[in-house]
Amino acid sequence: MKPHRHSTVRLGCTVLLALTLMVVPLAVPRPAHAADAGLVIEAFNVLREYYVDRVDAAVMLNGALAGVRSALSNAGVQGEVAEIPAGTSGAQSEIVFRTRFDAAVAAAGGRIAPTVLAYTATRAMTAQLKDSHTWLLTPEENRERVLRQQRQAGFSGAGIVLMLREGKYYIRDVIPGSPAASGGVQQFDRIVRVDNVPTAGLQPDQLSGLIRGQTGTSVTLVLERPGRADPVTVSLTRAPIQVPAVFQARVLENGIGYLQFYQFVSRSSAEFRGALNGMLGNGMRALVLDLRGNLGGFVNELEAIVSLFLPPGQPIYQEVARGGQTRAVRTFGVPLLPGHQPVIILVDESSASAAELLAAALQEHGRATVVGQKTMGAVEAAIMIDLSDGSGLSVTVRRLASAQGRRLEGTGVAPDVTVDLPVIELDQGRDSQLQAALQLARQRLGTAEVPAVPAGR
C-alpha cells in the first residue's frame, strides 16, 4: 500500500501497501528516453498483464486521450482528439492512440512537451480504474520513493510534514534530525510565507517546491506560533532529509507510552519492536500508537508489527488475487506486548493503506480502541514497476479486506471514538485528538492524573 506493502515477493517486485513509497524493477529497464506515445502504451501493457482485473484497451486508451484533450485545452491549443470506437481490438486501439497522440503533439507546437503530455495521458488512463494504488510516478518521484523505502534521504529541504486546514498550512510534524528540528520549528506552527512568497492560495505541491531545494541553500519560513503575538522568522539551511519510521517513543506519566509511527519502510518493524521494548523497560503500562499521517508501506512490515500485539495464527487481513483466489494472512511468533495492556490507536484522514489494516486488525480483534477521524480508505496491494524512461507505475495486483472481510478501499476505518482536530485547536496549539487518546488510556488504567503530552505534541 502507498498505497501498499506485504511480505510477499513475486516476479521480482516487492508488494506494497502504501500511498507513496518504492520501486523495484520487474526486469532490467531499457535506457531512459524522452516519454512519448510509446510510454503510454508501455504503461497500458503493464496494466493489461498485472492489474488485478481485466482492462479493455479502447476504454483505457480513451481515458488517456481524455487527458490529452484536457492538456491541450488548458494550454489554449485548438484541435480535436476523437475517441477510439468501442470494441476496437487491442492492437488497433494502440495504433489509433499513437496516431492521435502524435497529432496532438504536432498541434501543441511546442507549447506542451511530449513528455508532459505522455505523463498526463498515463495518469488520466490510470484514473479510469478509480483505484487508490494504481498511479504513475515521474522519474524524479520514483527515485525519491526508492531511496525512502531503503531508509535513505530521498530529497533535500527543511524536514517538515505539512497539514492543510481551511486554506491554512500548519506544521503537522517536524522530522527528527532535520534542519527544521534543529532550527526550532514547532508542531502547529502556521506557515505564512516562504522567503518572500505568501502561502495563501498555494497548492501543496507548490508550497513543497518552495521549501525543498538544493542541499546547502537557505530557506526562510515566517511562522505564526500559538501563544506568540508576533510572527516567528526561521532561516534554515536545506539538507538531505532521511525520514525515520518512528518519530517518537517515550513513556509519560502513569506509565502511558506514546509511539508515533510514520511509515512501513524496510526494517521498520524492527525499529517498532525496539521502541516497544524500550518503553516496556521504562515501565509502560498502556500504549498510545499514533498512526496519523502514516501512508503505509511494505506488507511484510505490517504483518510483523501486528504479530507484536496478537497471538500467532490470528487473521491480519484477507487478500483476493486475480482469478478470485482468496487467502487470509495470519500473525506469527510470540507477541511482545502483554495482552492486558490497553492499546489506543490514533488515526486521521491521512492514515492510509497498511496503517489502516493495522488499525482495523487490532480493532476487530478487540485489542485496541481507535480514536480520531475516519481513515483515507486507500487499501489495496500493489507492485511498483519501472518503465523505460525511469518513471514508475504502481499496479494493484490484489484486493484487500480486513481480518473479518470488510472492504476498506473507499470507506476507511471508522474510529471507536471520533475526535476532530479543528483550526481553532491548531491555532491554540492543542492536539485534541492526542489528549483524547491519553485520557482514554488514563481511564483504562484507572489513574487520576492526565499524563503530560510529549514535547512537540
Care to describe what's here?
It is a single chain. The protein is an alpha+beta fold. Helix content is 31%, strand content 26%. It has helices spanning 37-50, 57-74, 90-108, 114-127, 139-149, 179-182, 204-211, 268-281, 299-306, 354-364, 423-427, 432-445; strands spanning 3-10, 13-18, 135-137, 155-157, 160-165, 168-174, 190-194, 197-198, 218-224, 232-237, 239-241, 246-251, 256-261, 286-290, 296-298, 315-321, 326-330, 343-347, 369-372, 380-386, 392-402, 417-418. A six-stranded mixed β-sheet has the order 12-13-14-18-19-22, with helices on both faces. Strands 3, 16, 17, 20 and 21 form a five-stranded antiparallel β-sheet that branches. A four-stranded antiparallel β-sheet has the order 8-7-9-10, with helices on one face. Strand 12 (246-251) and strand 13 (256-261) form a beta hairpin. The longest helix is centred in the first third of the chain and has 19 residues, at 90-108. The chain is globular, with a radius of gyration of 23 Å. The two termini are 27 Å apart. The model is unreliable at 1-32 (pLDDT under 50).
